[in-house]
Amino acid sequence: MEFDPDAHIDHGAPLPPYRQLAGILAARVQRGDWQPNRAVPSEAHLVQEYGVARATVRRAIAVLVDQGVLFVVPQRGTFVSPKAQ
């Protein structure tokens, strides 16, 4: 499924918000908003930007980590995988 990197979360859609957010963030990585080995915005920033719960952001990030798009460094943040683009 293709996602628009500029899309907003549709809480009435059949796709869960965390899946929508994961797709949007992946599309932003593909577009080049964040470069490989560089941090993505914090969980708190993504909560504010997309109007979702912190658990939703964490679940979306976990999906992208499982897909190899992002990786997490404890105490440092979430970063774009070098092989993501």
UniProtKB/TrEMBL annotation:
<dbReference type="InterPro" id="IPR000524">
    <property type="entry name" value="Tscrpt_reg_HTH_GntR"/>
</dbReference>
<feature type="domain" description="HTH gntR-type">
    <location>
        <begin position="15"/>
        <end position="83"/>
    </location>
</feature>
<dbReference type="GO" id="GO:0003700">
    <property type="term" value="F:DNA-binding transcription factor activity"/>
</dbReference>
<keyword id="KW-0805">Transcription regulation</keyword>
<dbReference type="GO" id="GO:0003677">
    <property type="term" value="F:DNA binding"/>
</dbReference>
<dbReference type="GO" id="GO:0045892">
    <property type="term" value="P:negative regulation of DNA-templated transcription"/>
</dbReference>
<dbReference type="InterPro" id="IPR050679">
    <property type="entry name" value="Bact_HTH_transcr_reg"/>
</dbReference>
<dbReference type="InterPro" id="IPR036390">
    <property type="entry name" value="WH_DNA-bd_sf"/>
</dbReference>
<keyword id="KW-0804">Transcription</keyword>
<protein>
    <submittedName>
        <fullName>Regulatory GntR family protein</fullName>
    </submittedName>
</protein>
<dbReference type="Pfam" id="PF00392">
    <property type="entry name" value="GntR"/>
</dbReference>
<keyword id="KW-0238">DNA-binding</keyword>
<dbReference type="InterPro" id="IPR036388">
    <property type="entry name" value="WH-like_DNA-bd_sf"/>
</dbReference>
